[in-house]
Amino acid sequence: MNIFRLIGDMSHLLAIVLLLLKMWKTRSCAGISGKSQILFALVFATRYLDLFTAFISAYNSTMKLFFISTSLVTVYLMYFKFRATYDANHDTFRLEFLVVPVGGLAFLVNHNFSPLEILWTFSIYLESVAILPQLFMMSKTGEAETITSHYLFALGSYRALYILNWVFRYYFEGFFDLIAVVAGCVQTILYCDFFYLYITKVLKGKKLSLPA
Amino acid sequence: LSNFVVKDEL
């Protein structure tokens, strides 16, 4: 555990808490892509199956359980409790266009051709593109609430911090996981346009609106 | 299952 990894994990945790708070306080999931949230639940459910096969640390297990349970709660809130506020008309990204190619790639490019390893690889690849329905939705509506942009900034920063963690681990521990690094870079690159808008608009007190 | 390389990251 190094400082980049720890801040990265805390940023990920903060993102999830921000999203849940936004929904709970406003009793609304307006502006949030339910499809991205379904993908995140799928990401956690397929990645953390090793909860049952290996124990790493109390921190590790606690975080895994937190991510799995909160992602399921988020999907429940969006599709059941606050369903009336869900903006389905703008959430039109086709999930099969992500899940099918990512599933195929996980079968072809993995560290080991075993069920758990393929599911882990699927999860890593899927996470890298899981935000696309959310970004697609924002490009259709042309704006985002400020709390939603804070959520997205924390969520995007988490993987960017993991990249620093991987650089650190490569130099000081000789650790290198090509699949995680490539997918993590792709994931971070997808956020760059948003990061730019966040820094130039939201941090200056303006609402995030996209150029037409 | 035994072929799974243990991952310590989240």
UniProtKB/TrEMBL annotation, chain A:
Keywords tagged on the record: Endoplasmic reticulum, ER-Golgi transport, Membrane, Protein transport, Receptor, Transmembrane, Transmembrane helix, Transport
UniProt feature coiled coil, ranges: none
Pfam families: ER_lumen_recept
Family: Belongs to the ERD2 family.
UniProt protein name: ER lumen protein-retaining receptor
Main location: endoplasmic reticulum
Organism in which the protein naturally occurs: Aplysia californica
Tree of life domain: Eukaryota
